[in-house]
Amino acid sequence: MYYLLAWVAYCGYIYIDNIVNGRGVQPYVWSNLMASFVAFTFCFFVLYPKFLNRKLILLFIVGLGIAEGLFIGTRWLVEEVIYIPLIGHGNYNPGTAIMYYISDNWWKALQPILLSFICWAFLETFNRERENEQLRQDKIQAELAFLKSQINPHFLYNTLNYIYSMAYPVSDRLADTIIKLSNLMRYMLADNANTLVDLQKEVDYLNNYIDIYRMRFEDHFFVDFKVTGDVGHAQIASLMLIPFVENAFKHGVMDDAQRPVRINLKANAQQLTFTVSNKINRNQKDHSSGIGMANIRRRLDLIYPGKYDLLIANNGDTYKSTLSIKLAQ
């Protein structure tokens, strides 16, 4: 829509300029508009967003030459090929050298090229400001939601401590499960959702989470969790990895010893790669993992903009997610 408005405004400018200067709407005005349309469209949709926006200066300079060529070539095609059989003459005398035609038209191409840049730059600035505002609003909403989620867990954490004291004399296994659950609650309460924590804490959280499931399902729970690299000197946003494990446990098969849920974490101070794969549970009625993945991507966009890759593979039998993050040192 913005592109169409800009082009209509440009056509209006050309029309008014010719009327004011007493030239009228002559055939060469239409050829100029058609050539300008081609150059303007190329610059607006290809040259500036593909090359200038990515700082590919050499390719951008080549693109400027292409824009000039498109303008000159289109105008020559209309005026010197199409117009001659239609109106009996072209815009230039017969036999005009091609170099003269180029030198007489290259500066005219600058008008649509510059106008398209102004329109593109305005639209780009507007879109970036709108995206930044949306990110600010999303961050505020995420922080408010996290603060709201802290109200009831405090009560649960204190209650778990009491239940642990009651369960300890009865069953060591039950008491151990309660203390692990208590540690999960402590981690969730102690660390803000958007602050960095030691990666080792995140690993401990995952281990406690897996252990609770293992105690629950006993011999019908098969998970292979491997950690490699130096996790002691890396940091990550808290609770960033657990959604992938939750998704695997919710939608995957956990009781197949031949195909366990595989969780692999490889990290150093600069880079983290986290992979979770599971056999898909075909008896699972709820397959709504799309919303969860969308929420994960939104959080990654907020905390690690331009610093992560998230790949999802689903072949109908196996679901695999691979997250790579460039970590802050």
UniProtKB/TrEMBL annotation:
Keywords, in A-Z order: Coiled coil, Membrane, Transmembrane, Transmembrane helix
Domain Signal transduction histidine kinase internal region: 142-221
Pfam families hit by this protein: His_kinase
Top-level taxonomic group: Bacteria
Gene Ontology MF terms in the entry: phosphorelay sensor kinase activity
Protein biosynthesis among keywords: no
Residue ranges of coiled coil: 123-150
TM regions (residue ranges): 28-49, 56-78
One GO cellular component term: membrane
Protein name stated in the entry: Signal transduction histidine kinase internal region domain-containing protein
Organism this protein belongs to: Mucilaginibacter polytrichastri
